Amino acid sequence: xxxxxxxxxxxxxxxxxxxxxxxxxxxxxxxxxxxxxxxxxxxxxxxxxxxxxxxxxxxxxxxxxxxxxxxxxxxxxxxxxxxxxxxxxxxxxxxxxxxxxxxxxxxxxxxxxxxxxxxxxxxxxxxxxxxxxxxxxxxxxxxxxxxxx
Length: 149
Prior knowledge:
Structural class: mainly alpha
Largest sheet: 3 strands, mixed
Distance between the termini: 61 Å
């Protein structure tokens, strides 16, 4: 993995040190977004269908990210050496080529973020984002404001 990701590894570490490290040790790290959710789905063995509800709230470790990065890096190099192009890997038919190609570096970056922020070596992955939180907050406000109507 060091061979092809090596040039990016220092950039990843530098970015994390500059933009994330100031957060200090968080009691919990929560990750949202495609790389984190894809990693959990692959670890859970989701083959035909991506199940966001099964992903939501899952815990992933730094070692999980590093293992997936290494596995995908090996798979990509093996396919390229054979002159083969992309195909769904790990029996994940929902995995796109763009996501497949970005997974090694993305998993390395998230491993660095979790290591830097968490100190505990794990993160909880959310299939939801800020919009869900805003909508939930507005719904609760609406219920409170109009409770007697």
